[in-house]
Specification:
Elements (H helix, E strand, L loop, with lengths): L2 H4 L8 H4 L16 E4 L20 E3 L6 E3 L8 E3 L6 E3 L7 E5 L5 E5 L4 E3 L8 E4 L14 E5 L6 E5 L6 E2 L6 E4 L1 H35 L2 H24 L3 E7 L1
Parallel strand pairs: 1-9, 13-14
Antiparallel strand pairs: 2-3, 4-5, 6-7, 8-9, 10-11, 10-14, 12-13
Length: about 250
């Protein structure tokens, strides 16, 4: 292993290596040092933010002990430390050109995206970790309109082409949102204007032909059709105005 890769071995949280090993790794013996092959942590493996139904405290689930971690004031950090097991959990994608790796001893490491082998810095581990190829192949960077989107429902990151698609469907929660507020607001106003036009037409036809309708029952079907079209456009406008907005994080 060359010197450049050795420099990448430091854990994301400095005190993690100097503190006593958590209860999850106390049984690990120095004689267990070995070579292992593991896969880097993919973006869709990051824990989604969780808000209790009756509170406003943002929480995430610890990837090691499954305890809830309060991330109030820490949303801009890439990782947070669990108070229960003292292990680090990533809450954001790794910085550009980097990737996360979780050692079998639960130590969270960060290394270059091109690294193939790293060593765990924990004194009682020292495993040599061979990194498997990522299962997710990023799309070519030259694809026009391809952006990273933070879902307005589950806040998880996914790729979305803003040029070819009207609405974004999250691959994680399968719910639909709009990439930015402009599209939904524009569609909402268009539907509201059409609803207004059909409302005026419906009222005009009703008022102008109510005497004919008393003699011909077929006019009531015309009234119903006009008001039905008005209702469809009005409900559609409410749908667009109330739609969740997904945030564009940047180009892919």
């Amino acid at each position: 292993m060359d010197r450049n890769e050795v420099d990448e071995r430091a854990p994301l949280i400095e005190n993690e290596c100097n503190s006593s090993v958590s209860s999850y790794t106390r049984n690990l013996q120095v004689s267990d040092v070995t070579k292992v092959t593991i896969s880097p942590i993919e973006p869709d493996e990051l824990p989604p933010p969780y808000t209790p139904p009756h509170g406003e405290v943002p929480m995430v689930t610890c990837c090691v002990c499954r305890s809830m971690i309060d991330i109030t004031g820490k949303k801009e950090q890439h990782v947070v430390k669990c108070d229960n097991c003292n292990e680090a959990t990533p809450i954001k994608n790794a910085p550009p050109g980097k990737k996360y790796v979780r050692c079998p001893c639960n130590c969270l490491l960060i290394c270059k995206a091109t690294s193939q082998r790293i060593a765990c810095p924990r004194p009682n581990c020292k495993r040599i970790i061979s990194l498997a190829q990522s299962s997710i192949t990023p799309p070519p960077s030259h694809v026009p309109g391809m952006c990273r989107i933070s879902c307005g429902h589950c806040q998880r990151i996914f790729l979305f082409n803003t040029l070819n698609n009207a609405l974004a469907r999250c691959p994680h929660c399968r719910r639909v949102s709009t990439a930015g507020s402009e599209f939904a607001r524009r569609r909402g106003f268009i539907c509201l204007q059409l609803a207004t036009v059909f409302l005026v037409i419906s009222l005009g036809v009703t008022i102008g032909t109510y005497k004919i309708a008393q003699k011909s029952g077929g006019m009531y079907a015309l009234y119903a059709g006009c008001f039905l079209v008005f209702a469809i456009f009005f409900i559609r406008s409410i749908y667009y105005f109330s739609m969740r907005i997904s945030t564009i994080q940047g180009t892919a």
